[in-house]
Specification:
The complex is a heterotrimer of chains A (about 270), B (about 350) and C (about 280). Chain A is an all-alpha fold. Chain A has a domain of about 160 residues: MetI-like (MetI-like fold, Orthogonal Bundle), CATH 1.10.3720.10. Helices cover about 80% and strands about 0% of the residues of chain A. The longest helix of chain A has about 35 residues. The radius of gyration of chain A is 22 Å and the shape is globular. Chain B has 2 domains: about 220 residues, 3-Layer(aba) Sandwich (Rossmann fold), CATH 3.40.50.300; about 130 residues, OB fold (Dihydrolipoamide Acetyltransferase, E2P) (Beta Barrel), CATH 2.40.50.100. In chain B, the strands form 4 sheets. In chain B, strands 7-8-9-3-10-11 form a 6-stranded mixed beta sheet, sandwiched between helices. Chain C has 2 domains: about 110 residues, D-Maltodextrin-Binding Protein, domain 2; about 100 residues, Periplasmic binding protein-like II (D-Maltodextrin-Binding Protein, domain 2), CATH 3.40.190.10. Chain C is built from 10 helices and 10 strands. In chain C, α3 packs antiparallel against α10 and α4 runs parallel beside α5. The N and C termini of chain C lie far apart (about 80 Å). Classes of the chains: A mainly alpha (about 270), B alpha+beta (about 350), C alpha/beta (about 280). Chains in contact: A-B, A-C. At the A-C interface, α1 and α12 of A face α1, α4, β7 and α8 of C.
């Protein structure tokens, strides 16, 4: 690509794009500058409250992603490859959380698993209590983040030519072997991309968690909730947490982008 | 024995076919696109469930609608090479070839792969990615991969369609050798008549799902067969000829039918002098003249007598007796202009390059 | 490429101008009323009031009472947790009047010169325990039963701070278990960002009980039972009000402040469970 000549018109033509980039970029710069100006970033990093919420966010989001991958991958594959009864309904249901405000998701889960529902009461009878537990954090994260992964995975599987799978079968490989050795590696870049999005979404999950899991340090207080809590008392802690959350998210996305780019380079 | 029949309705296609493929032979399914050829291969491979039928691979039933039997593809022991080859893009040539070798000790896998790579001339390409292969290399890799698990039946879907003409001829010869060596019967799908005749030990001609003819390719072509078969093949004139002289510098050779005082000039082939070959020419490539033409570039000028004139809309089909029958397709206007009539003298004009060498 | 560049250079400036125009119109539409056009319109002056969320219902009623007697004034109410409102004011939000649920947030604003004069006392409030009617909590001692699910507001918002103070005081009550405070805190499963969230969780039935303001009882229904805290252990939450230094309508704001302290407003506050300010 030749660089475009820098004429007044071309500058003006790109002005909306430049303004948009500034619009997105300036808040981040401001966040970092303010956090640095307030100081105490190092102190906040060693604050047990900050560390606990950071750890909780990482652990819960990792568990969520594990469940999303294990449960979402077969579903995405089924949606990509077969037409079954109620296909469209399942499709719509999978994407519903994307258009739903997270608070509604949290409220809905509370209605389903809370004490007022027969299901919640039955679960409590056998000793399973979800609301206001770490498990509820994981549930909330799965609820809001899974669609990002399932959508991407489904598109990824759809892009894999079914002939490869047919061929693998005629070469004596079982459906499971075929999935593991052909469909999965070929769709992997899409799966990783979807996983990165879902992970970022899970890390930033707030509304459903506050509703369904509540906000308690060390148990349900993830980074976004800790930011909200800190905002009520100490701006510098809130800013430090916001900076850390931004860095962690960007680092995760970067790592995944790097991994998938490396796969591309080694010939996938 | 590899045999079977299926009945399958799919959209407009109402497929009904019965086949039998003998060991170390190639059965060709020939027909235009949409005739149902690929559907048959997929049914045999187990990638599609026909509505009714019975399929045997290596003497073992793998599908029977009456007995509700249907083995999954991985248990049918067929090798399948689809038209696109479908080489796994994330595996190397070696890994592609080794893919079907399951349940064997590592050493044996390596040995078998190495020998296949050697046989198919792929040794130097073993670590390449399929996207860096030429058409011919990709085709050979796909074939090696399909043959690796020693299938009882090999299914080839238009295996040469993506290759240029010269490579096609070379690889055809290669394929015949492999099939003969391995004793694995092969079912090959093609819409290319040269390929059908060059490769097939026997031939099933399909048209819109129906079996319109079957038998050895040459007898199908040479016997006065149905108009459908002739139309499908597009070669109305097929001759058994003996090579009299080769002219490599001109790229031609001369050949004549047995006991006929007639010499035909053909494109140069591999057949040595004195050997027999089969050559054909489509009726549309034959010109008809009512007076002896002068100063022609075409090398075959055959005098004869008009034997038959029949309608073949939108054309008229004229058969001249030039010692051998020569069929030409001409327009009704041409018939009028030339004043063609049965019993009159006429000349057939054919360019040497219009002939195709069907079997040498 | 050449063609698309050409197109771009023809179209882009026009698109850009349109885009600028759209923003200009939007800015114009959002701009505060200018003097010239506003004199003909009925409510010409607007007061922005930032208030602690516990004041919600009462203040809405006070607002209509004030607007009734001042037809040319429109009051715009903003409710949130007191620290959030303070942060917004510190970050430049325009408010004429600030109603704080505690003293510390108000004095912080005063110290940074954002509040005008000495803040006045608005009302007082106390705490009450609310419990889900379907749940097991019927009296104060029940709060210490193991396995309950209790909610508090964040300790950084006033009601959260008061709740913990009252709980510590209750720990001294000889009629309650000796480790009452510890056992109650062990039952806390969530710290909500404001008192309305606490009330909501109890009403949904998934939280057994919680400490809230007495005035919040107005926002509950028959699904919730109120358990009183004896006066000697209860807190007196003092709500302060001050005109902001950056007020657009400081004179009007002072008028409203006076109205808030007057009989009419005070009787509304009392109806919602607030105590009168000590005179």
């Amino acid at each position: 690509m030749k660089p475009l000549p820098l004429t007044p018109w071309s500058l003006l033509g790109n002005a909306p794009a430049i303004l948009y980039l500034l619009f997105i970029g300036i808040p981040f710069v401001a966040l970092f500058l303010r956090a640095i100006a307030l100081g105490g970033l190092g102190e906040s990093l060693s604050d047990p409250l900050v560390l606990r919420s950071l750890l909780l966010s990482l652990v819960t989001s990792l568990i969520s992603m594990g469940i999303v991958v294990i449960g979402g991958t077969p579903l995405a594959y089924a949606l990509a490859r077969s037409r079954f009864l109620g296909h469209r309904l399942v499709d719509a249901l999978v994407e519903l959380p994307l258009v739903l405000p997270p608070v509604v998701a949290g409220l809905a889960m509370l209605m389903a698993f809370g004490r007022q529902s027969p299901l919640g009461r039955a679960m409590e009878e056998v000793g399973i209590v979800l609301p206001f537990t770490t498990a509820a954090v994981v549930f909330s994260q799965i609820f809001v983040s899974a669609p990002f992964y399932i959508r991407a995975a489904r598109l990824g599987f759809q892009a894999v030519d079914a002939t490869y799978e047919d061929l693998s079968r005629t070469l004596g490989r079982s459906p499971w072997d075929t999935f593991r050795r052909i469909s999965l590696p070929l769709a992997l870049p899409s799966l990783l991309g979807g996983l990165a999005l879902a992970w970022a979404r899970a890390l930033s999950e707030f509304g459903a968690t506050l509703m369904f899991a509540g906000n308690f340090p060390g148990v349900t207080q993830t980074m976004p909730l800790a930011i909200l809590s800190a905002l009520e008392s100490d701006l510098s802690n809130a800013l430090a947490l916001a900076v850390i959350l931004t860095i962690v998210s960007v680092a995760l996305l970067g790592a995944i982008a790097f991994l998938s780019a490396r796969r591309e380079r080694i010939g996938l | 024995m590899n045999q079977g029949w299926i009945q399958h309705r799919l959209g407009n296609l109402d497929l009904q076919v019965r086949w039998e493929a003998a060991p170390s032979e190639i059965l060709v399914l020939f027909g235009p696109s949409g005739a149902g050829k690929t559907t048959i291969l997929r049914a045999i491979a187990g990638l599609l469930q026909p509505q009714a039928g019975h399929i045997e691979v290596g003497g073992r039933p793998v599908f029977d609608s009456a007995q509700r039997l249907s083995l999954p593809p991985e248990r049918r022991r067929v090798g399948y090479v689809p038209q696109s080859y479908a080489l796994f893009p994330h595996l190397t040539v070696r890994q592609n070839v080794a893919y079907g070798l399951t349940g064997l000790p590592q050493r044996e896998v390596e040995e078998r792969v190495a020998s296949l790579l050697t046989v198919f001339g792929l040794t130097g390409l073993a670590e390449r990615s399929p996207r860096n292969l030429s058409g011919g290399e990709a085709q050979r890799t796909a074939l090696a991969r399909a043959l690796a698990p020693q299938p009882q039946l090999l299914l080839l879907d238009e295996p040469f369609a993506a290759l240029d003409a010269e490579l096609r001829r070379a690889l055809r010869r290669e394929l015949r050798t492999h099939v003969a060596e391995r004793q694995a019967p092969t079912i090959l799908v093609t819409h290319d008549r040269e390929e059908a005749i060059a490769l097939g030990h026997s031939l099933i001609v399909l048209d819109r799902g129906r079996q319109v003819a079957e038998g050895p390719p040459l007898s199908l072509l040479t016997r006065p067969s149905t108009a459908t078969v002739a139309r499908l093949f597009g070669i109305e004139n097929v001759y058994r000829l003996r090579v009299l002289a080769r002219h490599p510098r001109e790229g031609t050779m001369e050949a004549a039918p047995e006991s006929k005082d007639l010499r035909l000039v053909l494109p140069l082939g591999d057949a040595p002098e004195g050997s027999w070959l089969t050559a054909g020419v489509p009726a549309t490539e034959v010109l008809v003249a009512s007076q002896e033409p002068q100063g022609l570039s075409a090398q075959n000028l055959l005098p004869g007598v008009t034997a038959v004139i029949e309608e073949s809309p939108p054309h008229i089909r004229v058969t001249l007796d030039c010692g051998v029958p020569v069929v030409a397709l001409v327009t009704p206007r041409a018939v009028e202009r030339l004043g063609l009539a049965v019993g009159q003298r006429a000349w057939a004009v054919i360019k040497a390059s219009s002939f195709s060498l069907l079997a040498e | 490429m050449a063609l698309s560049n050409g197109l771009q250079s023809v179209l882009a400036p026009r698109l850009f101008l349109g885009w600028l125009l759209a923003w200009a119109l939007l800015a114009f539409a959002c701009a505060p009323d200018s003097g010239a056009s506003s004199s003909q319109l009925a409510p010409s002056r607007t007061l922005t009031v930032f208030a602690a969320s516990s004041l919600t219902e009462a203040l809405v009623e006070v607002k209509s009472a004030f607007e009734e007697s001042h037809p040319d004034v429109r009051i715009s109410l903003q409710f949130a947790g007191t620290p959030t409102l303070r942060l917004q004011i510190e970050e430049g939000a325009q408010a004429d009047l600030f109603l704080s649920a505690d003293e510390s947030n108000m004095s912080a604003l005063r110290n940074s010169g954002l509040a005008e004069g000495t803040p006045a006392v608005l009302v007082t409030n106390g705490l009450v325990v609310i419990a889900s009617k379907a749940g097991p909590v019927r009296a104060l001692p029940d709060l210490a039963r193991p396995g309950l699910r209790l909610a508090l507001a964040l300790s950084s918002v006033p009601v959260g701070h008061y709740s913990r103070t009252a709980l510590a005081a209750l720990g001294q009550d000889p009629s309650l278990a000796p480790d009452f405070e510890r056992r109650v805190l062990a039952n806390v499963v969530t710290e909500e960002p404001n008192v309305r969230q606490v009330v909501g969780k109890v009403r949904l039935g998934d939280i057994d009980a919680a400490f809230v303001y007495r005035s919040d009882l107005a926002a509950t229904g028959p699904d919730v039972r109120a358990i009183l805290i004896p006066a000697e252990y209860n807190v007196v939450a003092t709500y302060l009000v001050a005109v902001m230094e950056r007020a657009r309508e400081p004179e009007l704001a002072r008028q409203l402040l006076g109205f808030l302290q007057g009989d009419r407003a005070q009787s509304i506050f009392q109806r919602y469970g607030f105590g009168a300010f000590p005179s």
